[in-house]
Design a protein that fits this description.
The complex is a heterodimer of chains A (77) and B (578). Chain A has 77 residues and is an alpha+beta fold. Chain A is built from two helices and four strands. Chain A has a single domain (12-70), classed as Alpha-Beta Plaits. Chain A has a two-stranded antiparallel sheet with strand order 1-4. In chain A, strands 2-3 form a two-stranded antiparallel ribbon. Chain B is of the alpha+beta class and 578 residues long. Chain B contains 15 helices and 17 strands. Chain B has helices spanning 23-34, 72-82, 89-109, 142-152, 225-232, 258-261, 284-295, 310-322, 327-335, 388-408, 418-428, 439-454, 460-480, 486-511, 531-534, and strands at 8-18, 40-43, 60-61, 134-135, 156-158, 161-168, 174-181, 187-197, 237-238, 247-249, 267-270, 301-304, 344-348, 361-362, 375-377, 536-543, 546-553. In chain B, the strands form four sheets. In chain B, strands 1, 2, 5, 6, 7, 8 and 15 form a seven-stranded mixed beta sheet that branches. Chain B has a four-stranded antiparallel beta sheet with strand order 14-9-16-17. In chain B, strand 6 (161-168) and strand 7 form a beta hairpin. In chain B, helix 2 crosses helix 3 (89-109) and helix 3 crosses helix 10. The longest helix of chain B is centred in the last third of the chain and has 26 residues, at 486-511. Chain B is globular, with a radius of gyration of 23 Å. The N and C termini of chain B lie far apart (64 Å). The chains are: A alpha+beta (77), B alpha+beta (578). Chain A: Residues 10-42, 44-73 form the 4Fe-4S ferredoxin-type domain. Chain A: This is 4Fe-4S ferredoxin, iron-sulfur binding protein. Chain A: GO terms for molecular function: iron-sulfur cluster binding; metal ion binding.
């Protein structure tokens, strides 16, 4: 069965100007209980790869440069 | 990252603790304190720094037994009544006797508890009978404080390893576990002399009404692996039919927490602004009244604070919006709701297993021992009812100390190496397929069936239909589930646990042919409770590969319950409105 990519808006937004993942920071990726964040090979910045968020906010709270914002997923708003 | 790699490492330890949330860190810490020479490994699917139900912290203790405010005897009585009499009191009593020393220990870790102007603990009354709720002003620091202690005690921490099966030795003892790396798919075999499972609730069982798979009441990382692994290891599980169902903010999955609001004068109201339950403490009996009101013409149900002084309402809002689930403030901001101005619509959660709130857990005694020698369980997945965060800490400590003593007296139990290759084959099967169904679709289907058929009221014919449909999904899972990387592999292993839990929820519920615990086990075709036949535990286990249930007598009470007290939790409804 072919697999489709269904678009979805994700709750975690990273400000790429503030994110220092390209300098080796992985804090948000490390602390996520659901392990849904990754560092992009393309931009070197953190982003939400998997739409499996509990909007619990360690990524935002622990980010050393305040680059991460956790929004409420659209389905709950 | 996430690319699959082949690999298998082996490691030995005296004690393996699985799960680094609340009970697990305390178990590992106490084991090392008791025996500083012991090798203790703490295995965690995520990262111990921020894992588990209290990832962001907790705003208070729900069940603190503090001298001068309540006694272990009172608490044991209250929980026995709240849990409809189905309680082996020894474990509850032991918790009640030990939890004050744990509060003092947490205090030394730097976690503060609210004190009044005289320097006494500021304990609040929320329960039907006694006084047990203690706010935690810096509750957002709990995980950090625990982590510091783990580092100090030199516990060996293995993050991003997900245990998939326990290893059982030839003499029937727990012999360790097999785990898979959630970023690479590499295996780790941990041989241990004793194992403590602290793997949380089965929180991804029902589907939240929002339709968002991960918008569950429980941290969705707690997907029931503990229940599933204990079952496959031959342990007995107690009272799984006593589901967890909680009152929530409508659409947002944070607890409605009349708990926090109650002592300030907040309460649960219907759409006529009327209070309809006496006591907002979470119990199946209270949830039944909540459900009845939702279904009645007086629904929906609301958290009511707008009658309070604005400062009071704002203070409650500040607590609820900053500690346990801080995204809640964002939710209300977007909706434009203010606690001081309007009532907040509430709803009920999806179903789950969680002894932390109800009583569904792996059966344990007062030493946190399961029915498998050398295997312990603590926290939300162990059967001590209504034990919440402080119960996880206290029973985790009890488990850690008992298990490390056990480990001192035994050698590694020998297990069959074939178990490892068989488990590798099972785990990796979804990665060997080029075509198939992704785990999220299989998960959605299981959880949709759980909602359609297993949510109370429980109807026998619907349950039997569900069992047939779940068997079909199991066949799909075993033959067609496909994982394309290590992350999807983790999800597919979680799906297998979720399906096991759904099967167990159906099986245990059908076995108990009566209603008990209010909404948690409301069987429409057996609407009354039947003490003569069912004032007992139901233990579920696997016998020769087949699921089975048996009755187990409730141990004789240590603290007697008077005839006129035993139904106190059924007297929740406010009958006369002035």
């Amino acid at each position: 069965m072919p697999i489709a990519n269904t678009p979805t808006t994700v709750p975690v937004v990273v400000d790429e100007d503030k994110c220092i993942a390209d300098k080796g920071c992985t804090v948000c990726v490390d602390v996520c209980p659901l392990d849904v964040l990754r560092i992009s090979d393309l931009t070197g910045k953190a982003y939400m790869k998997y739409d499996e968020c509990w909007y619990c906010m360690p990524c935002e709270a622990d980010c050393p440069t305040n680059a991460v914002t956790v929004n409420i997923p659209y389905l709950l708003r | 990252m996430d690319d699959l790699r082949a690999g298998l490492n082996e490691v030995d330890c005296d004690l393996l603790v699985i799960g680094g949330g609340t009970a697990g860190p305390m178990a590992a810490y106490r084991a090392r304190k008791k025996n500083p020479d012991a090798k203790v490994i703490l295995l965690e699917k995520a990262n111990v720094k921020r894992s588990g139900a209290i990832s962001m912290g907790m705003d208070g203790l729900n069940n603190a037994v503090i001298p001068g405010h309540s006694t272990p005897e009172q608490y044991t009585k209250e929980i026995t009544i709240a849990n409809d009499g189905i309680v082996d009191q020894a474990a509850v009593y032991k918790y009640a006797q030990n939890c004050y020393s744990i509060i003092e220990e947490l205090d030394q870790f730097g976690i503060r508890f609210q004190k009044d102007e005289n320097g006494e603990y500021d304990v609040k009354k929320v329960h039907h009978m006694g006084t047990y709720v203690l706010p935690m002003p810096n509750g957002d620091t709990v995980k950090k404080a625990l982590y510091r202690q783990l580092r100090r005690a030199r516990v060996l921490i293995s993050n991003r390893f997900m245990a998939t099966r326990l290893l059982t030795g030839k003499s029937g003892r727990a012999a360790g576990a097999i785990a898979v790396n959630t970023r690479t798919g590499e295996f780790l075999v941990i041989r241990a002399k004793a194992v403590i499972m602290c793997m949380g609730a089965a929180g991804r069982l029902g589907l939240p009404t929002s339709g968002y798979l991960f918008g569950t009441y429980e941290n969705p990382t707690n997907s029931g692996e503990g229940y599933s692994m204990a079952y496959h290891a031959g342990a007995k599980l107690a009272n799984l039919e006593c589901f967890q169902i909680n009152p929530l903010i409508k659409d947002y999955n944070g607890p409605a927490c009349a708990y926090v609001a109650g002592p300030f004068g907040g309460y649960t109201a219907n759409s006529k602004n009327e209070r309809f339950i006496e006591c907002d403490y979470w119990s199946g009996q209270m949830m039944q009244e909540f459900y009845n009101e939702l279904q009645s013409g007086k629904g929906p149900v609301f958290l009511k604070l707008n009658h309070l002084h604005k400062d009071t309402a704002d203070h409650i809002e500040q607590i609820l919006h900053t500690v346990e689930r801080p995204s809640r403030g964002r939710f209300h901001e977007q909706r434009g709701t203010k606690y001081s101005e309007q009532m907040i619509e509430m709803h009920i959660s999806e179903i789950g297993f969680c002894s932390g709130h109800s009583a569904s857990g792996v059966y344990v005694d007062e030493f946190a021992r399961t029915t498998v020698p050398g295997l312990y369980a603590a926290g939300d997945m162990a059967s001590v009812p209504h034990n919440y965060m402080l119960g996880a800490f206290t029973n985790g400590a009890i488990a850690g100390e008992h298990a490390i003593e056990f480990a001192e007296d035994v050698d590694f139990d020998v297990f069959d190496d074939a178990a490892i290759s068989l488990e590798q084959e099972r785990v990796l099967a979804p990665t060997k397929r080029d075509d198939g169904i992704p785990p999220n679709q299989i998960e959605y289907k299981i959880r949709r069936l759980v909602n359609d058929y297993l949510q109370p009221p429980k109807v026998t014919a619907k349950y039997e239909l569900c069992q047939t449909r779940l068997a079909e999904v199991r066949h799909d899972m075993e033959t067609q589930m496909m994982a394309r990387d290590a992350h999807e592999l983790m999800r597919s292993m979680e799906v297998a646990s979720i399906l096991d839990c759904a099967d167990m929820a159906a099986f245990a519920s059908l076995y108990r042919t009566e209603s008990r615990w209010g909404l948690y086990h409301w069987r429409s075709d057996y609407p009354g409770s039947n003490d003569a036949d069912w004032k007992c535990h139901v233990l579920l286990s696997q016998e020769n590969g087949v699921m089975t249930c048996e009755k187990k007598d409730v141990a004789p009470y240590i603290i007697p319950i008077a005839e006129d007290e035993k139904d106190a939790y059924y007297k929740q409804r406010i009958t006369a409105q002035a």
